[in-house]
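Kindly review this record before class:
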Amino acid sequence: MGSNGNTLTLAEHEEIYASIQAYYLAKSVPRTKPRAIITGGQPGSGKSRITSDAAAEFSEQGGFVLVDADKLRRFHPGYSNLLREDDTNAANLTHPDASGWARKLRRAGQEGRRNLIIDQTSKDPVVLIALANQLHTDGYIVELRVIAVSSLISEQRIYARYEQQKVTDGYGRFATKESHDLAYSELPNSVEAAELNNSVDTIKLYDKDHRLIYANEIIRGDWARTPEAKDALVQERNRPLSIDERNEYINGCEKLIILLRERGATDDAVPYINNLILQARQLHYSDNITTHINKPMKQRLLVMNGQRLLQKEKEGQWVVEKVDKAGTIKPGVYNLYLAAQADKANTYDGVVMHSDKDYVYQRVGKGYIKHDRSSFDKTPGNGSDVSIKYNGNTAIISASSIKQGRGLSR
């Protein structure tokens, strides 16, 4: 090894890489129109599920090359000893070689026109755009798939994974708070840059349970819907947890404390986890519990292939309740459950997305407004671009000059 005892000599590095390339490229075949799926998400967000889903897709499409520096660390001859000696720093100590192998493997897969799964945090927008541009130059269809998860949950997942691995293997894979926080803070900028620069062909965002919450694709040179992936990412990260989610989170932290104490942890993890529990409990008790207990079933619109699908969430799954024609509504995922109640002192310009027996849902700017249906003498049609203002409790409808998807309230 090199002078620092962890980084390999150039000869060692290249010799090991040769075996890595042979191993990974044998699992795929060249494609006429290769695809590349790039992941995004801070450590602990759940990117592994994106990777496994992508692998399942590619298994019937010529296989794939997985580019993941974490997976390549196992080829480092000193990694096992480093895990046993200092598992919290083993990744950093082997990063120069693992990241170098990942870059070489990606280039080899790209030159060989293999499908690629590039597992990364995508924290640097400049690097992400450069990567996507290189792939496009070589004829790739590029998709960015991102996990939108709050920092509280991803930090807990890092510790949970680490402690569970300590129990089963005696050591674990750990991500430092610095690396977590950097990826968390910069990811929205990467998502925004990729969409606004048309750097990828498709963007998909998933929540913590891997449900699709946003999708956009380029059709004939332009995005199918107004680019707002960054807003959707931030909105999902910052949304209040339900009571069930917070109880689950607190229980998970309490189980972590038990695992830490059982192994006789002497680091600062115990007070840190205790602080996470305190934060969650303060959030839990600061909310009006009845607003969650009486919360209506989540619903959203999925518009695709000229159809408008009304979906409701049942037991963690989106179930189609109604299908009709999309009309002028652009393709996309529209989370109606995020709608705010209309303030009758304001005027709202935007597209009517859906109406039910209780509400009329309107897309206003980058959000949603719900109007009491009883306020209307005549309900506006779905897809109509209108201005809605109030005269007392009566909603008055007029034509809007605001472009679809870019409405405003005033």
Summary: The chain has a mean pLDDT of 87. The first strand starts at residue 35 and ends at 40. The CA atoms of residues 211 and 317 lie 8 Å apart.
